[in-house]
Amino acid sequence: MSAPEGAPRGSARAPAERVDNAAPPAADVCPCGSRLAYESCCGAFHAGRPAPTAETLMRSRYSAFALGLPGYLAETWAEATRPDEIDLDDGTVWRRLQIVDTLDGGPDDESGIVEFRAAYRDPDGAGLLHERARFIRADGRWVYLDGQIRGS
Q: How many whole angstroms separate alpha carbon 2 and alpha carbon 148?
């Protein structure tokens, strides 16, 4: 998941209070929509476990945006397309993730596509980011390469 020019870039969910890669309380449900506890879902990836699929990485990146974890976003962004700085303190609250489609991106693939919709609220009101994101393997780990913003 990227935060392209003109699209919301972060989370207002206490970014100043969270330390990058710090887990929320154990009782929290994961922001990615899995309905699992954060610790047994995206928290494991934020703690260093490699995502097994492109979709799993997409979900963990969405959670990183929602929780204000720029370090994780940088680590899981392909070096060739990674921005120099990832600023998440813009008043955006990520509300819901919907996976629309996936193409490849499995444990034995070298690339994959995940199309998603991410609902958010920012100082301008409610919005929806619809992106078709490309993922590749780099050094054996899935990373976000780039994405095309779609009309919703």
A: 9
